[in-house]
Specification:
Helix content is 79%, strand content 0%. It is mainly alpha-helical.
Length: 293
């Protein structure tokens, strides 16, 4: 990759790592479903403004409204809700590490639905290592009375699995410009969250939040969602999807550093070990480091 592509990759990792930091601040005052609604609505509005300002033809989205609505459900509504619910009990760094299992579930789901050919042996090994890393992080909590914070961890793992289904389903949008896919799914997510907030959310929590929390929400929606999507799709166009996938190695490091430095979070020994195992699994599934050697 070029130096510019590397800079974009690092910036994207910082932005998506920052999303866990901003969310951890926001969920302390804003109920999770309301926070999801605010995140997708603000991000969708920003992307619509960007599309209109750039005079991009958005009519191709109309023919794909139903698939985009389903993508919104499995790529935004479900995973965002599960992550925010999880982050009411666990920190930004730990949530990002559990979310880093996404590539493992994506590979399993794509193979299971015959979307991709049978994975090479190094990918099988990477998947097994990654799932083992998640198990290392979950097992001690399951042994505790009441399960500890295992439910919160499972919620974030559930979000990672949902992302895996979304990544597999999103292959059908190859003919649609990525910016339109992002705008369409975030618009659909906003529509889906309206009845969710009306029946199960707490609208007042968004109105009662203090300025620091509202700034975190704005950063979550504008920087870590709207701008990050545009940056991600540009990175795919210039460096390719495989290189862009390396962002999964940067996100947990970014979120962990922010959590430790700004929120005073700490990880238990088994969580640090699990993080190392997951990152090693990602390196194995990527394969390039070992191919060079």
């Amino acid at each position: 990759m070029s130096a510019r592509s590397w800079a974009m990759l690092i910036l994207l990792g910082a932005l998506w790592g920052g999303s866990f930091y901003f969310a951890r601040i926001a969920v302390m005052q804003i109920e999770p479903f309301m926070l999801v609604a605010m995140r997708v609505a603000i991000a969708a509005a920003a992307l619509w403004i960007w599309l209109l300002a750039a005079r991009i033809d958005f009519r191709p989205m109309k023919a794909q409204w139903a698939p985009l609505l389903f993508l919104a459900l499995i790529n935004n509504v479900i995973p965002f809700s599960l992550i925010f619910i999880g982050q009411t009990a666990i920190g930004a760094g730990l949530a990002s590490i559990m979310n880093a299992t996404t590539p493992f579930w994506t590979a399993l789901i794509a193979w299971g639905f015959a979307v991709e050919a049978r994975p090479a042996m190094h990918k099988f090994a990477g998947i097994a290592i990654g799932v083992a890393g998640a198990a290392v992080m979950l097992a001690p909590g399951m042994a505790e009375a009441g399960g500890g914070n295992v439910f919160a961890k499972l919620a974030v793992v559930g979000a990672a699995i949902s992302y895996g289904f979304a990544a597999t389903f999103a292959r059908r949008f190859r003919g649609l410009p990525p910016t339109l896919v992002a705008t369409g799914q975030l618009t659909g997510s906003t529509l889906l969250m309206i009845p969710v907030v009306a029946f199960a959310g707490d609208f007042a929590s968004g109105l009662a939040a203090d300025p620091r929390v509202l700034i975190a929400v704005a950063a979550l929606a504008l920087a870590s969602t709207a701008f990050a999507y545009v940056l991600y799709f540009r990175l795919i166009a210039t460096a390719g999807a495989t290189n862009a996938a390396l962002v999964t190695l940067i996100v947990p490091v970014s979120a962990l550093l922010l959590g430790v430095l700004l929120l005073g979070e700490k990880l238990a020994l088994h969580e640090l070990v699990g993080m190392g195992v997951i990152l090693f699994g990602l390196l194995v599934i990527d394969g390039r480091l070992f191919a060079r050697r």
